[in-house]
Amino acid sequence: MPRIIAGSFRGRRLAAPAQSTRPTSDRVREAIASMLGSRTDIADARVLDLYAGTGALALETLSRGAGQAVLVEADRKAATVARENIAHCGAGDRARVVQRTAESFLAAPSSVFDLVFLDPPYALSADAVTAVLAALPPHLAPGAWVVLERASRDEDPRWPDALEEVARKDYGDTTVTLAQLV
């Protein structure tokens, strides 16, 4: 069961639906926080968490000072659990869940975001992830950061020209890539 590692929600345990998600491990979430913390200040950031699952990535960021988060999750059970985790952390005034696919969310006009997490199912093809990455730039604020989590064994997606890969690190069977809007 994942837990919030740092910040105002520190130590809160998060529920996870049985079998429909693969929550980001505490170790990887801490590594992502370190990668971001050495490059940007997330205070008051507007966060988009695509393929949100339990909401652990967005909630960890809110716990550390981000301002608002939109969690996009297509799976009904996972979306319900993400809403419960938001309530459990007391973040209902700063976070909301949108039950849609990442593709349909990005196809519609929305706010712009300072930080985007993508933690798609490992079974999602590199081409499908490439299409989602290509749809991101209109939803990004100047200088926005994008964090992609994929299986280390998976083929790499192609980043659009508007996003520059800044860092990449493997954590066991997980690869985390950090990119910034140029």
Automatic annotation (TrEMBL):
Signal peptide: none annotated. The keyword Transferase applies. SUPFAM superfamilies: S-adenosyl-L-methionine-dependent methyltransferases. Pfam families: Cons_hypoth95. Keywords: Methyltransferase, Transferase. Coiled coil: none annotated. This is 16S rRNA (Guanine(966)-N(2))-methyltransferase RsmD. It comes from Gordonia alkaliphila. The gene is rsmD.
